[in-house]
Amino acid sequence: MNRNLLYSHKINNLIQTSILLMTMTGVIGLLGWTVAGNRGIIFALLSILIVVLFSPHVPPQLLLRALKARRFSALDFPQLFNAAALIAERADLDFVPELYYIPSDEMNAFAVGDSKNVAICLTGGLIQRLTGRELVAILAHEAAHIRNKDLMVMRLAVIAGRITEALSFFGKILFIISLPAFIGGDVVFLAPLFIIIFAPTVSIFLQLALSRTREFEADRLSTQLTGDPAALITALQKIETYQQGFWRNLLLPRWYYHQSPLLRSHPATSERIALLRALEQQPARYPPSA
Prior knowledge:
Layout: H1 3-54, H2 60-66, E1 70-71, H3 78-90, E2 98-102, E3 109-114, E4 117-123, H4 124-129, H5 132-147, H6 150-183, H7 190-226, H8 229-244, H9 246-251, H10 269-280
Helix pairs in contact: 1-6, 1-7, 3-5, 5-7, 5-8, 6-7, 7-10, 8-10
């Protein structure tokens, strides 16, 4: 693939991710200052550090058990199992992620865990409706998330969001306690109140934007791992068609419910496909894996 194109996408995503994470930190600092002045800033930033270092990690097995997931073996699906090993090698992972089957008709795939204990989950609907090449492309996409440490990045974003919610709640309590003084004639400054009320909403929007950015980067890297952008394109098209509903997509293709881009955790499929088509025009680094 064209190295200049890939490098440009990688740098743009890195810059966007850095800006979003710094903005989330800035929102927490601003909220901390609004609630408790300079001490609030120090408290907020220390809270992030403490939670990141000492927060308990929930083993992915608990989630997998709740979803009734079953672990794949080489005998269950040898083609997929071998593809996972090959993708892990190409991604320079120190391990081959465990594969799990989720008995659901939904078309979905996701990675759970941390750097030492990661699993990739595939639903029954996805396995039944995608071809071998398309499943390999989806595996590569999830492996790209693992390679890019997206699980850790999004965990940091969630932690920042929780701390923002806690500070906002504390600020609202202080405001309620201070109401008698305001009623008695003290001036009410609206700007701090708006910060306290709307900071959690801003944090959520930033989390969603960060998630969309990481999805673009995972798409880019997955095409390097498989050398087969076309397979990921058709997989995304099938998933979107299923999610919209076949008859609604066929009869009313322009009238289906359009969710605001700001509320999406993933970029619009059309935007992802546009990126993949640009990569598709370049020579493949690897031949298709299946």
